[in-house]
Amino acid sequence: MTLKVGFVGTGGFTKFHCNLLAKMEGVQVRAFCATSLDKAERAAAEWNGAKGYDSAATMLDAEALDAVYICVPPMAHGEIEEALIARNIPFLVEKPIGLDMEQPVKLLKEIQAKRLITSVGYHFRYMDSTQRALELLKQRKIGMGLGYWMGGMPLVSWWRKQDGSGGQFIEQTSHIVDLLRYTMGEVEEVYAAYANRVMHEDHEGVGIPDVGTVTFKLASGAVATISNTCILPPHSQGKIGLHIYTDGGTLELTNECLRDLAPSTVMEYKNTANPYVREHEAFLTAVTDRRYVRD
Ligand SMILES: NC(=O)c1ccc[n+]([C@@H]2O[C@H](COP(=O)([O-])OP(=O)(O)OC[C@H]3O[C@@H](n4cnc5c(N)ncnc54)[C@H](O)[C@@H]3O)[C@@H](O)[C@H]2O)c1
């Protein structure tokens, strides 16, 4: 059985996902939708037999797709998901899922009402190191967490606009929010402080804050902060991850490994599997299994 998949968006991350899917058994990339037919056809030309479309609805009506990947900038969400939900087609949406609360909450209600299979591209939860941290946390009491996304500014045009990306915290740092919720539990209260310090002076059209800190109160009683900046110059050392402080020591999660700073020992667990492959496998297995049930 081969799953036929389509992509909405033909940018850098669509290529990244397609290259991973090309190495997987039982998946065929069949269609691409872009903001112009020309762009979509250029993307499709790289995939044997794939077709290009300039609207998601046209693509979905023309192709019998089993699943769709949505890889568009944050401001472009809404209509695409609605078109998929209306046709009962499972989808994986790249993070972030929107710019505000209203639209994602509305989509969630519709997805739940239809019991549609969906997934979001928050890949930190698929890392070996995160799974190992979950095991270790079963024996420990969490006190607090400190999260980071300290780096530079991606230079694509939509990223620097509040109504394009939603700002760094939504566009990038929400990866760490997902990691925090996955390892430390649900959040009940949030406070934040942001500022524009550097990037609006150095680059044209920057409307997003370039530094910020968010404080969380969790349902468990634990507290956490997640800070971010995009002011660091290219090639400088940044920091991405979450440190969890427990009664058994500190767990340091990064995008490469877990460091367990237990009393008198430091253990390091490196990621071996590719978390993006795991993300695809989890989503596509769910689609396949549900299809068996439905048929
Ligand atoms: N999970 C991760 O690790 C990760 C990494 C990189 C990017 N991403 C996310 O993937 C998304 C896309 O990123 P990218 O790097 O591919 O961006 P990009 O700017 O390279 O490409 C975006 C594409 O979407 C297209 N597009 C915009 N609006 C559209 C619409 N309404 N219909 C169809 N196509 C539309 C654009 O023409 C462009 O081809 C972003 O939300 C980004 O945050 C996730």
List the helices and strands and how they pair.
Blueprint: E1 3-8, H1 12-22, E2 27-33, H2 37-44, E3 51-53, H3 56-62, E4 67-70, H4 79-86, E5 91-93, H5 102-114, E6 118-120, H6 128-137, E7 142-150, H7 162-165, H8 168-184, E8 187-195, H9 199-202, E9 211-218, E10 223-229, E11 239-246, E12 249-254, E13 257-262, E14 265-270, H10 275-294
Parallel strand pairs: 1-2, 1-4, 2-3, 4-5, 5-6, 7-10
Antiparallel strand pairs: 7-11, 8-9, 9-10, 11-12, 12-13, 13-14
Mind explaining what this structure looks like?
This protein has helices spanning 12-22, 37-44, 56-62, 79-86, 102-114, 128-137, 162-165, 168-184, 199-202, 275-294; strands at residues 3-8, 27-33, 51-53, 67-70, 91-93, 118-120, 142-150, 187-195, 211-218, 223-229, 239-246, 249-254, 257-262, 265-270. With 295 residues, the protein is an alpha/beta fold. It has 2 domains: 3-123 and 275-294, NAD(P)-binding Rossmann-like Domain (Rossmann fold), CATH 3.40.50; 128-270, Dihydrodipicolinate Reductase, domain 2. The relative contact order is 0.14. Residues 8-14, 33-35, 71-74, 76, 94-95, 121, 123, 156, 171 line the site of nicotinamide-adenine-dinucleotide (NAD).
Helical fraction? 25-40%
**Strand order of the biggest β-sheet:** 8-9-10-7-11-12-13-14
By CATH's scheme, which homologous superfamily of the largest domain applies? Dihydrodipicolinate Reductase, domain 2
Q: Within the CATH hierarchy, at the fold level, what is the topology of the largest domain? A: Dihydrodipicolinate Reductase, domain 2
Rg, nearest Å: 20 Å
